[in-house]
Amino acid sequence: MTITLINKKDKKEIEITENTTVEDILKKEEIPIETVVAKLNGVTVTEDEIVNDNDELEVIKVIYGG
C-alpha cells in the first residue's frame, strides 16, 4: 500500500502496511507530533487516524510563541 506524504514543499510516496496510523508515519519520518497538524485527504485528523492505500497525508507545521 502506498500513500502520498506532503511536508512543506516536499511530496513523496511512502509504503505503508495495513492499520498504519498517522502517528506511525510521523514517527517513521521523524516529524515531532506535537509540532504539526495532519490533514488526511484534505480533512484535519488526529494522530490515531488509520491511513489507507492512495491517501494523501499533508503535514502542516504549527507556529506558536509569545
What does this 3D model show about the protein?
This protein is mainly beta. The chain has one domain: Roll (Ubiquitin-like (UB roll)), CATH 3.10.20.30. Helices cover 11% and strands 39% of the residues. It is built from 1 helix and 5 strands; from the N terminus they run E-E-H-E-E-E. It has a 5-stranded mixed β-sheet, with no helix packed on it. Strand 1 (2-7) and strand 2 (10-15) form a beta hairpin. The longest helix has 7 residues, at 22-28. It is globular, with a radius of gyration of 11 Å. The mean pLDDT is 94.
Question: Could you provide a short overview of the structure?
Answer:
The chain is mainly beta and about 70 residues long. The chain is about 10% helix and about 40% strand.
Distance between the termini: 42 Å
How many domain modules?
Answer: 1
Indicate the structural class.
mainly beta
CATH superfamily: Beta-grasp domain
The shape is globular
Number of strands: 5
Taken in chain order, the helices and strands follow as EEHEEE
Strand content: 35-45%
Largest beta sheet, briefly?
5 strands, mixed
What's the CATH architecture?
Roll
- Which strand order does the major sheet show? 2-1-5-3-4
Radius of gyration, rounded?
11 Å
Helix content: 10-25%
